[in-house]
Amino acid sequence: MIAHDPEILMTGEVIASDTISIDPRAGDRARQLAHYCQHPNRQWSVYLQALTAAAFQQWLADWLPEQQADIQLPGFQRSSLPLDTAIAAEVLGSASYAAVGDFRLSLLRLDSNDASVSLPRAVIALPDYCAHFYVAIEVREELHQAHLCGFLRYDQLQARLQSSALMTSTDWHYSLPLTWFEPGLDELALYLRDLEPAAIALPAPMIASPLQAGLRAELAPLRQQLHAERRELWEVLNWSQLNALLHAPAVLTWFLTPPGPAERVINVAAWLSDRLDTLATELQWTLLPAFAPYSREPQGATGLRSPGQELDDLMVQLERRGADIAAEARGGYQDFRLVSTWLRLYAVTWAQTSPDQSSEWKLLIVLGTPDGRSLPNGSRLRVSDNQELLVEHTMQQEFDAPYLYARVAGTWDETFTVEVTHPAGATHAFPVFAFQPR
To answer: Which terminus of the chain is more exposed, N or C, with fewer CB under 10 A?
Structure first.
């Protein structure tokens, strides 16, 4: 420890109070930053983080006017700092990153009257996010003030975590007792001015993993959930998966980038929970009521029938042809126009367990017309997985049935692509069908 007078900072200057008045201009800048945040549910957090950063900069200007702080708020790019902008907002939570000279600091915001400090696991467990010092700052937004509550060195924090029974929450945060933090900010100022950064050893930077192809395949369904269902990163990944992503920058970029139109999937597993996912809703798919194809007879062609009744009849006919359809299967449909013909595509799905006890799903596709008339002669239905064509059927004039159908099966990580081709040559490709239970 560096010896010092608690009221004098070696230069003989009287130190400033640990309570900082936040300049109104800093408040205006904080509101502007919050406005630019692309995630509406994070705007308030960004506003408070910006006030936290302004308070620390003011404290540093009062105590060490010769020093400058380069601060990055999660989600806002600063070229001189090493954090990936996109991932920072996800893993840093309410923490901000600051550089003072060669020192790295993590600014931890807490609300008024909090007795604990929220610490993102990333800033202590991942080398690229670790800091020499962790500074707890209480923001009193209504008073336009902030109070610098205390600080911890990296080695102190590691030792206290190892000797305690603290566990992280589901969103990867520790709740640290405020009593863990050293209350004397004058000591932090002495460290920043007189200590060599090497005196507080930080872990070596992360090394990129070469095993990226397998990781991409493993995380593909989770990527679809993240973007299609607009979920938080911690809701779809566990900590080991996040850690693997952070060691694979190319895969990380891919994972955080919303899938393009050709990549987006219709998650038919949601149908079994009586709901449509975001993409199916956008594309105006209709989820049909549950049906029991084994318990009813075809109703024939008399009278008007709903799409649900039509599908019920189709299921009975297909079962008589040998199709094995689970009673809990659910179906949906979409009407679409190809050239000058209106067509209807039914999709039916259900889960099952294979003989080797692995989890599988089945997809039944039926191509017909909204009015029940026969498909145009030469219409073609194709179903593929991500490697090869699995099924191809072409409508022939001599066919008894007025529709085409295909049935495929795969494990939960397999997806299928459906294409319909008109006799005139035009093709309609549907988004990928996937089965991604939560």
So the answer is: N
